[in-house]
Amino acid sequence: MKREYSTKQRTVILNFLRQASTHTTAKDILLHLKSQNIKVSSATVYRTLEKLEKEGAVRKMSMGDGLGACYQYTESASCHGHFHLKCIECGELIHLSCQFLDEMEKHIFDEHSFTISSGKTVIYGKCAKCMGLTEEGNDCLSKDNCKCR
User: Which residues contact 106 (CB under 8 A, 6 or more apart)?
Assistant: First the structure.
């Protein structure tokens, strides 16, 4: 009977991660399960996430500086080919595909014989919302001189 219970929890957690549009924390999962009236301990969520990571179904990204970790279902969006931006104020994690960073990654390999794991690379700073730059025309994609495109 206990095995069936664990399988149900695993299925619910995996389904939540599949449907998540962004990186998800264990706390997000716990809140979701609670909202669905599914009783599960935080230890069970962490154990399940650890098993899913070992199986390759989930990627874990450590946010460093005691900020914990976030998780992403590996088939929904691959983080292996791009960097991440992490807002130090609101905590938003942004996927960043940028030609300039691709060139930097190539330079580091060519000139320094070092391969960057871009999917695990996080650059910290403030997002446009937290800087008050959310009005139309103030984001990177609208600037003519942006090299990210």
Answer: none
49-52, long-range: CB < 8 A, 24+ apart: 49/13, 51/10, 52/10, 52/13, 52/14, 52/17
d(CA 83, CA 94) in angstroms, rounded, equals 9
Residue 85 buriedness (CB in 10 A; 0-12 / 13-18 / 19+): middle
Contact 86, 108 (CB under 8 A): no
User: What is the DSSP-derived secondary structure letter of residue 22?
Assistant: S
Does the reported pTM lie above 0.70?
A: no
Contacts for 128 with CB less than 8 Å, ≥ 6 apart: 134, 138, 139
The CA distance from 33 to 142, in Å, is 39
| Pick from 149, 91, 95: nearest CA to 118 | 95
pLDDT tens-digit series, residues 19-60: 887 778 899 999 999 998 888 899 999 999 999 888 888 888
Reading the block at residue 55, the tokens are 């199986």
